Amino acid sequence: MSGELSAMPPPARRAHRYPPPRPNAVDVPQEYARLRAEEPLAPVVLPSGDAGYLVSRYEDVRAVLSDPRCSRAATVRPEAPKLTAVPFDAGGLFTMDPPEHTRLRALVSRAFTPRRVARMRPRLVQLAGSLADSLADAGPPADLNAAFAFPFPVAVICELLGVPYADRERFRTWSDAVLSLTAHTPQEMLRHKEALLAYLARLVAAKRREPGEDLLSALVTVRDEDGGLTEQELLTLAMTLLIAGHETTAGVLGTSVFTLLRHPGGMARVPDDEEELSALVEELLRINPLGDGGPLRVTTRPVEVAGHTLPANSAVIASVCSANRDGSRFPEPDRFDPGRFDPARARTGTAAGHLAFGHGPHYCLGAPLARAELAVALRTLADRFPTLRLAVPVEDVTMHTGLLVNRLTRLPVTWD
């Protein structure tokens, strides 16, 4: 980057609240556009009360996500600034750097490769179809979040890990608390996290007695026979996979259907052509943020960001939500454009990759599965409920607040 570098002002001056408030369930926080234009590296106050910096422009966000000096592992150091009072997965994938992160990721990455996901697709279609059957049998109106958007990815990750689907409401309660920014007290967060880990410890013990053909059983074997995992790493990894494997997909599936139903054509905009469907999924991922920012990073050495030098031990939030609405990267960034990522436009250079799944060594390993789940879910709903529409005015649909992930509270729908 050219030009003079300048030190940042102390975070206590003109610090913004993070995350910025959403005006409604439709729009991203309006503050991001102003920050991209005027303050691309902005001091913020984190939910923990600690000071940090928010990065909002696409190129800067992408750079931070791949810079090894912007560390995930450093966030768990006692002296480091914290996003929340109770870290999500201290000692897990989200709070590791290479080479430890590489070692742990390699143990599970084969379960999420595009080839493995392609083999899973018939089962995804079957699971989505079963939920659609139940939805049709119950009849309209319905809360699509409760009847489809949540149970579908939960069923998928439960089968993959070998977790009982019947326990879904229990671990949903635990997951919401673990992913809390401000929705739960630190005491509640810790209590629910300990309950989830205790549940997983009992499940691991059951897998030791009677292993199955599932990922958790395979990880138990790695732990017991190869010594490739400590017991704490095993439990934390299981928690991370269970939560990340359903929370984000459930959230973006609900907001994606909401996006389609707010625009002319509704579910008729879901194409039959696989390439066009893939392009639609990419645009829905871009325009419907999984969360407002991303996992916290802490600088291990001075780092240049957006023309300023951050000192070591600075907390940094790289806002993927803001980056995916950056007009310098995406023309008319606030417009829903189902063909934005179609192959023809990609070949001409008029489409650009979004950052919904991150970038760099922490790029979401479940991205192929999430994409497949979205494609199958949208195709199933469009086929089974072509007249699907909102059952309430748009402004009556609200978003959960105080969570790391974006998720609608309810999605009331009806159909003919």
UniProtKB/TrEMBL annotation:
Q: Does the keyword Acetylation apply?
A: no
UniProt-listed InterPro entries: Cyt_P450, Cyt_P450_B, Cyt_P450_CS, Cyt_P450_sf
CDD domains, alphabetically? Cyp158A-like
- Superkingdom is Bacteria
Q: Name one GO molecular function term.
A: monooxygenase activity
Q: Which Gene3D superfamilies match?
A: Cytochrome P450 (1.10.630.10)
User: Which UniProt keywords are listed?
Assistant: Heme, Iron, Metal-binding, Monooxygenase, Oxidoreductase
Name under which the protein is recorded: Cytochrome P450
Q: Which organism is it from?
A: Streptomyces albus
* Lineage of producing organism: Bacteria, Bacillati, Actinomycetota, Actinomycetes, Kitasatosporales
